[in-house]
Amino acid sequence: MGTTHANNALEDMRIAQNADRTFEQAVEHMSPFERKNLLLNYAREGDKKSTRTLLDAGRGNPNWIATLPREAFFLLGGFAMQEARRSLYIPGVDVAGLPKSEGSADRFKTYLSEHGGQKAAEFLMNALHYASEQGYVLDDLVEEWTQGIAGCEYPVPERMLHFSEQIVGQYLQQELLGGKAPDVPFDLFATEGGTAGMCYMFYALKSNFLIQPGDKMALMTPIFTPYLEIPHLNDYDLDVVDIKATTMADNGLHSWQYPDSELEKLADPSIKLLCVVNPSNPPSYEMSEESRQKLVDIVRTKNPNLMIVTDDVYGTFVPGYRSLFDDLPYNTASIYSFSKYFGATGWRLAVTAVSQHNIFDDLIAALPKEKTDILAARYASLGDNVPGIRFIDRMVADSRLVALNGTAGLGTPQQIQMTFFALMALMDTQGIYKTKMIEIVHDRFNCLWKSLKLQQNPDPLRAGYYSIIDLELWSERLYGDEFTQWLKRNYKSLDFVFRLARDTGIVVMDGGGFDAPDWSIRVSLANLNIDDYKRIGDYVSSLLSAYATVWQEQREKNAQQKS
Predict the structure, then answer these.
(1) Which among 402, 427, 452 is the end of a domain?
(2) What CA dihedral angle connects 469, 473, 475 and 479, to 10 degrees?
(3) Are 73 and 417 in contact (CB under 8 A)?
(4) Spatial CA neighbour of 148 closest among 204, 238, 79
(5) 215 contacts 239 by C-beta, under 8 angstroms
(6) What total of structural domains would you count in the chain?
(7) Which of 83, 89, 85, 88 is nearest to 105 (CA)?
(8) Residues 6+ apart with CB under 8 A from 58
(9) Could you report how far apart the first and last alpha carbons of the chain are, in Å?
(10) Among 368, 386, 361, 384, which Cα is nearest to 376's?
(11) Domain for residue 295, yes or no?
(12) In angstroms, rounded to a whole number, what is the distance separating the alpha carbons of residues 416 and 147?
């Protein structure tokens, strides 16, 4: 922190000790992402008065993109236009027809050979070879790709295009199930990002009487904020039980695992739903094998009707990751987003996976007649056999308020891009991409914590996409408990993040908004360059030191008054 900013910060802190807290109290009621927008405004105002660079470590949007599957997407687009003109072409007005299936695979191979110098052409040729090994009819596959990228048809099936579902399903087996096929096949619903998957899931659970106002649900915290906020909306009004990750490592820092005493809460059969982000957001740690086995045992022996929603978006940043969807496929629905791993937040690509034998369908079948009658009326437009409509297909219908089910589904160009992301990972048999993605976030993690002078032990469960800095724990180590208690008495925790934004141009998110410790901050390790994380660590250290300076001044003043 520069000398001028440091002096201004000290003076502001002296004034702020007994200031009115109306502003902080109002901000506390905002969602963390609304707070982040406010913090960005603070940081930009400070930027106008200095030559510093704004560093936004609050957002989870990565600063990388996977280029090869995108280049393949664009190359396919040129071929799709050729195919469209084969079926219909009106010169002068740029109108063409719809790509057709017959002979399309051979024509595509010829097209790719004409672009043989491009890496994307090699990728697509390898993709055709991979598809052939899977037994796919290549003409039909190429038709799905060309019509899909052209966006000339509604998504059919609405839930997900046929080959897209097959290929993405294989990708999930590789990344979430340890590479093995499930005992029971699962179905996929392609959605507009993971957030859409969350919304559709909650709405379908409510619409089918699987959760109702006043029901108990559990959240494994800290957790991504929508899972904290959605249950309390008047649409759902659920009674939330927190399962807290409170374990500590040998070095006295958080290990972000769940003690048995917390997991035992799930033995209560009145808890109907459990939501978990694994690896966690914001701590960014995979659930330990001990906790997994404990949870599995509790579900199988004490709460067999527990519905589980697991958000697996960060699983690809942990080598050998396995989802709860692998351990408890009957009870679990998995939401997986392509946004972080492939740098594709703007594409809005995600899938929800549900086993073909699942708790959701069985609980719907066991509903009393008065409720099944209501559902029969709700879904009557979908066909005569409403009891036979599976939960995942009800999700699709509910995503369009049932009446518009025929126009449901993720845009077909998005599904083709999703398929190419999945194919890149499936064909990367040496794991080159995964190794580099993990290396990037871990190098940034190490740089941040080295600048904080807090030693973090290696942990194979650490995804490292985010990091939480517990300011209370850190301040005790540096300045002692007396200072920490003074800090908590005289300032609100939000004071730290707002002051950091205004005085240094660094934006982070307060951990309290994620049900992390109140005096903590979340730093995204995905969206800045490695050297920026040293700057963040240095400035966070300097700001805490400035608070300590004000404390020391007050101690000295009090001592003088007593003497």
Answers:
(1) 427
(2) -150
(3) yes
(4) 79
(5) yes
(6) 3
(7) 83
(8) 36, 39, 40, 507, 508, 509, 522, 524
(9) 35
(10) 386
(11) yes
(12) 10
Strand residues in 7-70 grouped as ranges (E): 55-56
Average pLDDT over residues 112-122: 96
Q: What is the pLDDT at residue 148? A: 98
Name the DSSP letter for residue 116. T
Question: Angle CA(81)–CA(84)–CA(86) in degrees, nearest 5?
Answer: 115
Asked if 493 and 518 count as a contact pair (C-beta separation under 8 A), the reply is: yes
Domain range for 337 = 162-427
Q: Is 505 a member of any domain?
A: yes
C-alpha span between 402 and 379 (Å, rounded):
7
How far is Cα 412 from Cα 263, in angstroms, rounded to an integer? Answer: 41
Task: For 312-398, list the strands marked E by DSSP.
Answer: 332-337, 349-355
Q: Is this structure's pTM higher than 0.90?
A: yes
Phi-psi map region of 195: left, alpha, beta (phi>0 left; psi -120 to 50 alpha): alpha
Q: Would you say residue 362 lies in a domain?
A: yes
Distance (Å, whole) CA 549 – CA 196: 47
User: For 561, what's the count of Cα atoms within 13 Å in the CB-facing half-sphere?
Assistant: 6
Give the range among 21-35, 188-202, 426-440 with minimum mean pLDDT.
21-35
DSSP string, 151-176: T-S--SSSS--HHHHHHHHHHHHHHH
Would the CA dihedral through 114, 116, 120, 122 be positive or negative? positive
Q: Token pair of 115, please?
A: 């672009």
Task: Using alpha carbons, list the distances in angstroms from residue 554 to 343, 454, 479.
Answer: 48, 27, 14
Give dist(CA 549, CA 475) in Å, integer. Answer: 13
Q: Which two tokens stand for residue 6?
A: 């440091």
Indicate whether 271 and 346 sit together in one domain: yes
Among the residues of 328-368, which ranges form H helices? Answer: 359-365
Query: In terms of domains, do 90 and 174 share one?
Result: no
pLDDT value, residue 46: 58
Token pair of 166, please?
A: 């097959």
Question: For residues 476 and 242, what is the distance between their CA atoms, to the nearest angstrom?
Answer: 26
CA distance 417 to 413: 6
Residue 156 lies in a domain: no
Residue 367 token pair:
């509903």
Q: How confident is the model at residue 50 (pLDDT cuts 50, 70, 90)?
A: low
Please say which residue of 129, 150, 171 terminates a domain: 150
Q: Which amino acid is residue 134, in one-letter code? A: Q
Question: What is the Cα 130 distance to its own chain's centre?
Answer: 29
